[in-house]
């Protein structure tokens, strides 16, 4: 794998983009090394789709500079287009023709010869489990099949850089797994992937690096492990008795410096320590014991990416109710 | 991972290896190559339209529905009480008008089709491909032209079966058909341009209802001579009137006029050509621009 830091596959400098009164991007900076997966995270409206569309030459930045595969997206869009694959947030396939013809036409528009385009369509349909549906009209495909066809339509050429905007939204777990597999294979083969997702576990599994966007700006980036390490240790205590929740919460607050979350139903308190204050297990047990808390279970570990997200943006990635952690910390 | 390695980016001829940067084996495209690609792009997008019709042949039949309904309503219901000047019957007058409707109706499917492509993201997908923008749209309009030629041929056949005749010879009739297809090409570009600008299928579908009144304020169904002054001016200068008058002229179905004739109807062939050139000069750049810059 050629990780060439001096020649990133994607390079974004100070990109601004407004749509009327809405500012979608305000000075975005981003660099993605060749042959890696970058997971673009951020709450709804953070500017992920806008950033992806600018890089895929669909939208023009108002200010700033962006390069993909070594070419400028504004001044050399055709050179960029010869090297990228793009699967947008919604499946973009022609409904009135067959899946096979969809792929064939895209191959031809990439200027593959007729025979090669046909062979490539066959290969992709076979490889990604759409062989049986290949000659049916896309109109009759299920949502998941469409999504899959849309994704493989972005692989008709083997793109140097692939943009996937929420590729697995609305898919069943098996199809999600399939798509992860596809991405891994592509990357093993040298493709660079920029992927936006709402599923943090997806980013955790696939991405070499994560870029967190909020309000059109990059607020954190780095390998998932580094991001997690930067926000400290996660502590969880399950109690025998709900009545002791407040006491246990107080102990955790004192120990971690963070703001504990309580789960009455599960009789559980949790907290993430503030950066630079590691929590040791013996100390935790001693403190709980000293306050008379009867713990059934004590767990200590790395925070999840959800915790990172919450700490960075002050918002949960998913809609599950969470009581506030410490306000935004930027590693 | 042999399957994914099968193709190299852009169909280049070096073995596939993704490298970020210009040194990835994809040669720059020469001017001649660009022209060749543009032709191939046009053909591929034409093919897309043709494949679409192949799977929905009902659409061809459906596009005959409107002219045929008009034929029944005007030709047989109203027509039974209608007189046009001269010896020819009303139905002889009406048929070229219905052929003109086929040309005018190019607006509707292309407008809703383009808006649907925008809405479903198909336009975006096309815009991420290294294709010539104008060639892509040109291919679509040419394919539609081929399909409309079939529709027009069917309607001509029905007209002949019902006793309508062209009286000025084969060459003149062929010129009429060519002019009708030219105008269909024009309305296609209008439809694509508007559809790309509108970008929503439901809005486009609602707007396409407006085509009907546009086609009514013309000489398609009745001569403009009997219309009140201001309406007559609009009808006389409506490009659709010029096309219908040119078709009547070339098919030999014109009727003698009872009053002074406006310039476009006096020189309908020249007027049709002029209108077509003007409309193409407006809508081709509009469509190409909308296609290139959509969502920016
Ligand atoms: N074409 C457009 N016209 C007007 N506003 C737009 C347009 N595209 C994006 N925006 C606005 O720009 C901001 C960023 O949108 P964007 O779609 O990039 O967010 P996102 O991070 O992809 O969100 P999501 O997670 O919901 O997909 C939003 O406030 C959005 O309303
Ligand atoms: Mg989005």
TrEMBL record, chain A:
Any one of the GO CC terms: plasma membrane
Location within or outside the cell: Cell membrane
Domain ABC transporter: 10-240
Keywords: Antibiotic resistance, ATP-binding, Cell membrane, Membrane, Nucleotide-binding, Translocase, Transport
GO BP, one annotated term: response to antibiotic
InterPro entries: AAA+_ATPase, ABC_transporter-like_ATP-bd, ABC_transporter-like_CS, ABC_transporter_ATP-binding, DrrA, P-loop_NTPase
SUPFAM superfamilies: P-loop containing nucleoside triphosphate hydrolases
UniProt record similarity statement: Belongs to the ABC transporter superfamily. Drug exporter-1 (DrugE1) (TC 3.A.1.105) family.
UniProt name for this protein: ATP-binding cassette domain-containing protein
UniProtKB/TrEMBL annotation, chain B:
Membrane topology (UniProt): Multi-pass membrane protein
Main location: membrane
Transmembrane segments: 58-81, 93-115, 136-164, 170-197, 204-222, 273-292
Keywords from the UniProt entry: Antibiotic resistance, Cell membrane, Membrane, Transmembrane, Transmembrane helix, Transport
Subcellular location(s) per record: Cell membrane; Membrane
Originating species: Frankia nepalensis
Keyword Transmembrane: yes
Presence of the UniProt keyword Membrane in the record: yes
GO cellular component annotations of the record: ATP-binding cassette (ABC) transporter complex
UniProt protein name: Transport permease protein
Superkingdom field: Bacteria
Organism ancestry: Bacteria, Bacillati, Actinomycetota, Actinomycetes, Frankiales
């Amino acid at each position: 794998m050629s990780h060439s830091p001096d020649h990133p596959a994607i390079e974004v400098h100070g990109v601004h983009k407004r749509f009327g009164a809405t500012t979608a991007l305000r000075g975005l900076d981003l660099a993605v090394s060749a042959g890696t997966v970058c997971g673009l995270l951020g709450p709804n409206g953070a500017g992920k789709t806008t950033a992806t569309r600018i890089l895929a030459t669909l939208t023009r930045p108002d200010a700033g500079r962006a390069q993909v595969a070594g070419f400028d997206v504004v001044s050399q869009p055709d050179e960029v287009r010869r090297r990228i694959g793009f699967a947008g947030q919604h499946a973009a396939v022609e409904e009135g023709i067959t899946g096979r013809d969809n792929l064939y036409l895209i191959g031809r528009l990439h200027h593959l010869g007729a025979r090669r385009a046909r062979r490539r369509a066959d290969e992709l349909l076979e490889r990604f489990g759409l062989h049986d549906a290949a000659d049916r009209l896309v109109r009759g495909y299920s949502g998941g099949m469409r999504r899959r066809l849309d994704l493989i339509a972005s692989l008709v050429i083997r793109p140097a850089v692939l943009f996937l905007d929420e590729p697995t939204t609305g898919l069943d777990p098996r199809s999600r797994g399939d798509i992860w597999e596809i991405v891994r294979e592509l990357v093993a083969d040298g493709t660079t992937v920029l992927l936006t997702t709402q599923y943090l576990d997806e980013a955790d599994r696939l991405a070499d690096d994560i870029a967190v966007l909020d309000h059109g700006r990059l607020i954190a980036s780095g390998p998932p492990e580094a991001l997690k390490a930067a926000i400290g240790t996660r502590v969880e205590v399950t109690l025998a008795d709900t009545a002791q929740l407040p006491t246990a919460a107080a102990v955790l607050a004192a120990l971690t410096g963070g703001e504990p979350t309580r789960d009455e139903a599960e009789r559980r308190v949790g907290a993430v320590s503030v950066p630079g204050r590691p929590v040791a297990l013996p100390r935790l047990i001693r403190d709980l014991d000293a306050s008379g808390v009867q713990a059934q279970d004590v767990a200590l570990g790395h925070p999840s990416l959800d915790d990172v997200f919450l700490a960075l943006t002050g918002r949960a990635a998913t809609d599950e109710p969470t009581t506030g952690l410490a306000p935004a910390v930027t590693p | 991972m042999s399957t994914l390695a099968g193709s190299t980016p852009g169909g280049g001829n070096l073995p596939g290896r993704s490298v970020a940067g210009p040194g990835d084996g994809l040669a720059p495209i020469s001017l001649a190559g660009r022209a060749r690609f543009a032709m191939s792009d046009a053909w591929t997008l034409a093919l897309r339209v043709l494949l679409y019709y192949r799977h929905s042949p009902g659409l061809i039949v459906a596009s005959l529905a409107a002219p045929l309904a008009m034929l029944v309503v005007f030709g047989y219901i109203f027509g039974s009480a209608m007189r046009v000047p001269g010896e020819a019957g009303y139905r002889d007058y009406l048929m070229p008008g219905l052929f003109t409707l086929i040309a005018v109706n190019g607006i509707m499917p292309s407008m809703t089709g383009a808006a649907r492509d925008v809405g479903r993201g198909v336009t975006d997908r096309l815009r991420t491909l290294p294709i010539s923008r104008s060639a892509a749209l040109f291919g679509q309009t040419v394919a539609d032209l081929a399909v409309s030629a079939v529709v027009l041929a069917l309607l001509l056949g029905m007209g002949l079966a019902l006793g309508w005749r062209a009286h000025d010879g084969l060459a003149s009739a062929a010129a009429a058909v060519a002019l009708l297809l030219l105008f269909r090409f024009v309305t296609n570009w209008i439809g694509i341009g508007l559809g790309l600008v509108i970008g929503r299928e439901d809005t486009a579908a609602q707007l396409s209802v407006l085509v009907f009144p546009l086609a009514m304020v013309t000489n398609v169904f009745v001569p403009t001579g009997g219309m009140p002054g201001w309406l007559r001016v609009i009808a006389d200068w409506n490009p659709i009137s010029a096309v219908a008058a040119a078709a009547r002229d070339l098919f030999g179905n014109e009727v003698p006029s009872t009053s002074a004739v406006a310039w476009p109807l006096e020189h309908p062939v020249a007027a049709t050509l002029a209108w077509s050139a003007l409309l193409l000069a407006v809508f081709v750049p509009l469509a190409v621009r909308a296609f290139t810059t959509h969502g920016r």
